[in-house]
Design brief:
Structural class: alpha/beta
Strand order of the largest sheet: 8-12-6-13-15-16-17
Distance between the termini: 88 Å
Length: 633
């Protein structure tokens, strides 16, 4: 017979068990709701609604176990890839193993590295196949657990993120907020409109012949001619507003366009001059004259291109980008803007959180145009911490007045980098804007994904390499945008980011000098110490970039008044100590990158890098360090 204490214990256990499994029912009020899970924008909307009123919601759950996914991938590709690729997969963030792999990478020829990169593609595609099936099943299971009887209308169920968009009543929202399966609820703004605001004009033959200028100043032409980096075997996704029908287009090899996911209303009929086609042309187009001579060639003409666009509700940005991920794309270009009915800028919302999640979880580099509204700000798409946001400059490195940037001191620095986007002439048309700066960077990323399995599998390292290797523009030099010794400072500019794209510096830093490190800050660690040996000669600038990923779904404030954002994320302080004892400090302040840039005359030796968490998210953090020693203009 049970005594009183045992009976009470049994009752409590039963109640707890029932509370974990009971489906959602109407009746919760704001007084007994886990309000931390409800984004402030959504809560503001709910304050004016009745219990039965319906509202679009973005519902987030716990992630699937990616360590288990990684183990399954290793089992599948074990006998199909090189030992080097297998070692990268097995390292899975372990610093010592990755450093050992890095030292081995130095001894390889370019051709050996390229073959490893192709092998890595097999592992990437296996990971995406496994994780998509697991994630879709998990999302559907969570939906059934939460709504066993009254099934709300689903807008979209993701297969690469723990996320479902659906319509819920106010009462249902308060109920699901108390569920252990749910981690976050956002307002899914129905007024969202993806836009491409640059008009594409016709290009004539003389203008097209001038194309090497913008590829030359960024080093893209030399990456092809000197190092043979044409993007071969790299899958490039392009998400845009509209495309010409591929049968009408004469500046792509038919074999280069591997797949499309485009709604009928996103085609420009019988017209070579469309926004998306011009973007694609910069990345991978080729134009020959009547004699068969190449008169135009994009940054990565041997890359495999996948095109997606849509204007109707069945072609949401999530569906389009998930299609590109499913096709094994290593880099995705998004030269689109996100606009709202009431012009919201500098916000971190469900869109931004989704972009950050898929880029980190599935090792895809997203390159996004910063926009063309200048000081007005950065839209939610471009505000993604894990993406590479690109601003617009001319071939002399002067930023366009319309190039969007985050101006407030409490915002992360966006753009991350700038590239030519003024008077860009291609066989697909002529135009100006950040939409045509972004594909310059995308093309560069495709070139370097061809070079290395490490780069193909690590968006953080790609971003760190781009940032450290970029060149300070004349305006940045005049304004002394550089690190100051013995004080907290930054070498990133609000308008210019880290500077202008330079692929030659990227190649030297990565392949010749091996000036990079990747690793993981364990969730139990507060401080990580690294050492990087650099050879520095007279009149050189040392540039050191540290990039880390944003984990999980992040809470935001109400984005009112100055449109500022407050993001719950690991703030990291970084100190660089030169061999002569001079030190430089920088603090991320909600950003996920820092850049040091300082003159160092004949100070070769070990540069010490100390990273310290100032706040704590409770997660492991994947980081990448890239260094560049370069001569100023």
């Amino acid at each position: 017979m049970l005594n009183g204490k045992k009976i009470l214990k049994a009752i409590i256990s039963t109640v707890i068990a029932l509370s974990m499994s009971v489906p959602i029912c109407v009746g919760a009020t704001s007084k007994n709701v886990n309000e931390e899970k409800i984004d402030v924008v959504l809560q503001t909307k709910l304050d004016g609604l009745g219990n039965d009123d319906i509202i679009p919601v973005s519902l987030w759950f716990e992630e699937i176990d990616y360590d288990k996914v990684n183990n399954e991938v290793i089992d599948i590709v074990d006998n199909e890839v090189s030992d080097a690729v297998l070692s990268i997969l097995e390292a899975n963030g372990d610093d010592r193993t990755l450093l050992d792999l890095q030292s081995r990478e130095v001894k390889k020829t370019i051709e050996e590295q390229k073959q490893d990169s192709l092998d890595m593609q097999k592992a990437i595609e296996a990971e995406r196949d496994i994780s998509s099936r697991k994630q879709l099943l998990e999302n559907e299971s969570n939906y059934d657990k939460l709504f066993s009887e009254d099934k709300p209308e689903i807008i979209y169920t993701c297969k690469y993120a723990p996320n479902i968009d659906l319509y819920l009543s106010k009462a249902q929202i308060y109920e699901v907020a108390n569920s252990s399966e749910v981690t976050k609820l956002y307002y899914a703004d129905p007024t969202i409109n993806l836009t491409t605001d640059e008009e594409v004009q016709t290009s004539d033959g003389n203008e097209i012949a001038e194309y090497p200028t913008y590829f030359n100043v960024t080093g893209i032409s030399s990456s092809k001619s000197v190092f043979g980096l044409y993007g071969a075997g790299v899958n490039v996704g392009i998400y845009d507003g509209n495309f010409s029908r591929t049968d009408d287009v004469t500046y792509f090899a038919r074999s280069n366009i591997k797949g499309t996911c485009i709604s009928d209303d996103a085609y420009v009929e019988k017209n070579n001059y469309s926004h998306g086609s011009m973007v694609a042309c910069i990345i991978g187009g080729t134009k020959k004259d009547s004699a068969g001579k190449i008169i135009y060639q994009g940054a990565a003409p041997y890359a495999n291109l996948y095109l997606t666009a849509g204007k109707n509700s069945d072609y949401t940005y999530k569906k389009c980008i998930e299609y590109l991920i499913s096709q094994g794309c290593n880099v995705i270009n998004a030269s689109v803007g996100v606009s709202y009915k009431d012009d919201k800028y500098n916000i971190y919302n469900d869109i931004t959180a989704w972009i950050d999640h898929v880029s980190t979880a599935h090792k895809v580099t997203l390159v996004i145009a910063s926009g063309n509204v200048g000081v007005k700000g950065i839209d939610a798409f471009s505000m993604s911490s894990n993406a590479i946001t690109v601003g617009n400059c001319d071939i002399d490195g002067v930023v366009s007045a319309s190039s969007s940037y985050s101006s407030a001191i409490d915002l992360p620095y966006k753009p991350d980098i700038v590239a030519p986007g003024v008077n860009i002439h291609t066989p697909a048309g002529t135009s100006s804007g950040t939409s045509f700066s972004a594909p310059m960077v995308t093309g560069a990323v495709a070139q370097f994904c061809q070079l290395s399995a490490v780069l193909r599998n690590n968006p953080n390292l790609i971003k760190a390499l781009l940032i450290s290797s970029s060149k300070r523009t004349s305006v940045m030099r005049e304004n002394a945008i550089e690190s100051k010794p013995l004080t907290i400072s930054t070498a990133i500019d609000r308008k210019y980011g880290s500077g202008i794209l330079n692929t030659m510096n990227m190649y030297v830093s990565f392949h010749d000098d091996n000036y990079y490190q990747i690793g993981q800050i364990d969730k139990y660690d507060k401080t990580v110490n690294l050492t990087q040996h650099l050879s520095v000669k007279n009149s050189k600038m040392v540039r050191i970039a540290i990039v880390w990923d944003r984990i999980g779904v992040i809470a935001s404030d109400n984005h009112s008044e100055n449109n500022g954002i407050t993001v719950k994320n690991d703030n990291i302080a970084v100190r660089i100590t030169a061999p002569d004892g001079t030190y430089y400090d920088s603090v991320s302040n909600g950003d996920t990158k820092v850049l040091f840039s300082f003159p160092a005359t004949n100070v070769s030796g070990d540069y010490k890098i100390e990273m310290t968490r100032l706040s704590y998210s409770g997660s492991n953090i994947n980081y990448a360090v890239s260094c560049s020693v370069q001569k100023e203009y």
